[in-house]
Structure prediction request, 593 residues.
Amino acid sequence: MYSRKNALHYHAMVLPGILLLLLFSVVPIGFAVIAFQNFKPGRGITGSEWVGLENFHYLFQLPDSRLIFFNTIFLAVLKIAANLIVPLVFALLLNEVRVRFLRKSIQTIVYLPHFISWVLLATIFFDVFSLEGIVNQALGLFGIDPVLFYASNRWFPAIIVATDVWKEFGFNAIVYLAALTGINPALYEAAGIDGASRFRQLWHVTLPGVKTTVILLATLALGNVMNANFDQIFNMYNPLVYQSSDIIDTYVYRVGLNDLQYSLGTAVGLLKSVVSFILVVLSYVLASRFAGYRIF
Amino acid sequence: MVGQNSVRNRIIDGSILAVLFLITIACLIPLLHTVAVSFSDKTAADAGRVFLTPIKATTASYAKVLDDGQFFQAFLISVQRVLLGGLLNFVLTVMMAFALSKDAKQFPMRNVYMWFLVFTMLFSGGIVPWFMTIKYYGLLDSIWALVLPHAVQVFNVILLMNFFRNLPKELNEAAEMDGAGPWYVMVRLYIPLSLPSIATVTLFSIVFHWNSFFDGLVLMSKQDHYPLQTYIQTLVTQISAQAMTSMSPEELAAAMAVSNRTFNAAKIIVSMIPILLIYPFIQRFFIHGITLGSVKE
Prediction:
């Protein structure tokens, strides 16, 4: 039932939003041409010199760039793996709890950190992992010398991954829990009558029931390989651990906005955007082909 | 056999509960610790003697927070931002989700708009061009710089749109038969029928606006214009980067220890209050809202 008059109204409903997206998402993509310039703020885009791919050549020669690309992918991949597995284990455990009240209470508590900002959490963790912090005190009970977590390139990446999992596992478990409630109870009954132990039920009924979800999430995670979470790292890192945790986004911020090397910062950012975009599109294509996933 | 099985089952259930209990505690400890520090005596906290219960309980830190004009100012800016941003998000999300929930037959341009939305969600020019754009518009140091760039939350639009599409089509058709226009259908039918989902996306946008710090840091040049999270962020990084690189690890640790533990803890707790206040509502709605919206058969 098509009505031209209705369609006009629909256009009117989307237009304000589209306009704002044009102004604040598309126009910046236009400004990204300065990646191909030697941009000087005083001269503007029209007055600055065009240098072709020079910024990109330069960035490939920088020793920093290899490090930040490595750190980004390393931290992101670790987080992806941990954020797939830990929530799954948690959801499987919670699924075994039959008392509704307990389930609800546990869920209520573990979702909470997801809604607290990294600014606040970073401040809290800074205290928790400090020399007199509770972690070092706990280690002290076992006779282990205090560790300067925030100054150690060995420990810091582990802390980044662990705190990220701490914040997000409850929230990430929601999707798994939804998949688990979707499993037909008759399957468990049948397995029970056949004498299958709980472990065998887990193996033969529960895990196959969440398999598709796990595969889907893993595929979609491919799009996040370049994304190590700026908000977290920016709030937690310091110069002593740049070597192990400086990522593309934090580097772009420092070079582009702090040191005012606009063109270089834009070039690094643009490179990341393009690679991420390709990865996300690829992950969507794979997910729609193998799991019938559609975004809209 | 049956008896043996049930004993075994109980042991398994017991151990599962124990593990879950530990996990839950692990989620709470850092937060409870911060609460304890915020209510503790300053010297005890600085010596690291506080764990989960305040030592020499005092509300001195909170009194100090209430006296801190900058904190208050930043808090107000954040409230302003949440109100403006939340309202704008709500209006735009509902309108866009409603129009885009129509299929291509009713709304021929629908798929073009959809691809455009997804594109803007997935591709960005990076933060330097983003900063230049907002500077070019002359929005630096204005509250609108914190609100307008995030006016459309594409993810929320898609979430709500998927929900709208699951509502029975006959509803819409019947209403149009009776002569109702699209705006009437949206306001009188779709909104009342999707309150849980709308609440979910609105709460998401409120949390987003309350928690954002980066745009405040980059787009506001004066401290008086910082929203709360940005203000807190700058407190923590008071030790400048240059100073840090020149310090030895021990010196750095000493410099960090001087920071005002109890005062900062109180600031953190106060900044968390709005989130804790709306959290029960998020809890009630969001699982429902998310699972219905994200996976389509």
